[in-house]
Amino acid sequence: MSEVMEHWLDKRVALSPDALAIETPEGEQWTFFRLQQEAKLFAKKLANVACKQKHIGILSGNSVEMVVAFLACTYIQAPVVFLNTRLTEKEIEKQCQAADVDLLLTSTYYRSKAKQLSTTSYTFNQIRELETMSISLPSSIKMEGLCSMMFTSGTTGTAKAVMHRYKNHWASAVASALNLGLLSTDKWLACLPLFHIGGLSIILKGIIYGMPVYLLERFDEQIVHQAIIDKGVSIVSVVSVTCMRLLQLLGKQRYPKNFRCMLLGGGPAPQPLLEKARALDVPIVQTFGMTETSSQIATLNEHDALRKIGSAGHALFSASLEIRKNGKQAAVNEIGEIVVRGPMVTDGYYKREEANLASFQEGWFLTGDLGYQDEEGFLYVVDRRSDLIISGGENIYPAEIEDCLLSMPTIAEAGVVGIPDPVWGEVPVAFVVKRDGALTQDDIVKHCRSRLARFKIPKQIFFTDVLPRNATNKLQRHQLKKWIEERNG
Question: How many separate domains does the chain show?
């Protein structure tokens, strides 16, 4: 018999109905009671067009109405598929099909994009205009139930829907609190997209902890800075590029004493960034996690932040972590693949049995990421994946861009790698072998713009007569990086 809990929002309202749940820079203040009432009302209207267990897609930027729509779906027990607003219509269409999305909810801003899809869509406002159905909403949550799905790309470039069950989100929230601690004065600023696990997890933590969330539509260093200075924000989730912007803005100022953590994820942090933070007395807490682990699974605690600069810390309390090389546990300081297990780890990708067999072995999830552990067991992440490009916190897989390039009849071969960028961390560049006929960089960029999100479009394109391949004809991307290094002297 599966474990059942009282619906998290109902329980939170029973404990602290008038406590602040969500605050915005525009001055909106939502108590947990108001959030509950609005979510239940939306659910009873949504029931006109949606039903239990049907997958509902949400295409929206950060907003309270997006949070309300998500929570409403939990009340009608419909799993939510979160869609990246930065993707093209063709990319979103593929994800909707892969995740069996039956209905799409969207903000007014993305209505035109949603209309290009084959899935029936409604704006949040359109749902609110529907009749309120006289139905009873479940007061409990089945922890084994599917709560949400988010996409991550594999090395083939094919999107995979990561399944998050309620038990995964719960375990993530509890483990995070055991690591970072929880104070009655905490307020967590959310500027990461809610369609990413890092953003959604903050909303769920807020409900479970009874903690206010300061919700931004998008990252704005001025707003974030001011929120830390005088809005009582104590924790902020950032990636390297946003963290650097905040440090540059801080200048000679210092954050107030109640600010206790800048949680840094999205890839290995550059050493200069960490050193600058230390010089400014900014408490950077590095973390390692991914969509498959429902956000962080290893995090450096505040006490070791300066002593172990550059480390992502230990596995969270309920999680386990190992470094493996050639199928065996690696030695101290030996680089290998990071493998993890724990109740926050997904039990698989939706309808992707082959990928599940490759990624899960005897209860362990093989991340494909490289790292090592020092003599005290602290994790150091060396690379996210050998081929992965992380640009501004977004994962970009070369194979997906290569597929797009190879769809051009004038391109015979294509290879994509990431190069360092002072603003975004990394950006993609492409090497192409032309077929017969005229082909320009503008032709390639125009082609990519119609098929790929803007951040995936190669920032440089090099024409070459041949691409480096090994004996089995596999593309050697490390050689492409060497070519770039040689070109740059």
Answer: 2
